[in-house]
Probable membrane transporter protein
Amino acid sequence: MQLYLPIAEVSVNLFLLLGLGLIVGILSGMFGVGGGFLLTPLLIFIGIPPAVAVATQAPQITGLSFSGALAHLRRRTVDIKMGLVLLAGGLLGSLVGVRIFKLLSELGQVELLVSLCYVVFLGVIGGLMFIESVNTLRKSRKPGHVPVRKRHVWVHRLPIKMRFRTSHLYISAIPPFAIGFVVGILSAIMGVGGGFIMVPAMIYLIGMPTAVVVGTSLFQIMFVTAFTTILHATQNYTVDTLLALLLLLGGVIGAQIGAIIAVKLKAEQLRIALAGMVLAVCLKLAFDLVVTPADLYSLTGQM
């Protein structure tokens, strides 16, 4: 069944869109990530303009994050105070990111920007995830091995210290604000929630307990992506509501399936599988950037 998307100005198969939302929802449930860093390239692959793919991904992430944040709030695994500091940086970053996005759209360079950002970030994140997962899997097989993580690094000596009771931390507010700021820019430019960067940074840089990291990250992402959606809809006019609803419907169903699958697999196996998919998408995008197009010239005229 073909469905016409007015903002994207393309016709796409209805079941294909539901399937993409379902797949990303399964990944979200399995790996604890929003899935935007995979869904946006997939939308571009099926013919959705990059500007629309980026902007329309934001409301889908908002819905999934809202569902996850509610579950964590019920379990009291959300550090509200830390989330608000992250949110302050995220809102400011979104303003900057949307402004950059609009400027490049006017210059006609937004497609190149989105593709380059994805190639760089997916390549770096996928490579680091794969190496870390293989090393962890190798070390876990050694008898008596106990992983050790440093909780006090240079960021803890910065000024403007605040006490975060839920996370049992007394640290500077500058690092979480900066992390939120970067994630806000990525959300606006790349159409991602930023959890694949925020979660590792909060664990290894700030030293937050793993138990509260995911819920706090979802709390921040929920508001930042909602704010980004409003900015894109009012300034760039690139949010396709129908596309967002279809993706969200498939994503909610897929998240429940992914959560069931995740219980049956080891954490190291999950991370290696995710790293493989990230690197595969990265290679496809990189190939599309360097390959010579079939039509070198496009001529249009008006009578």
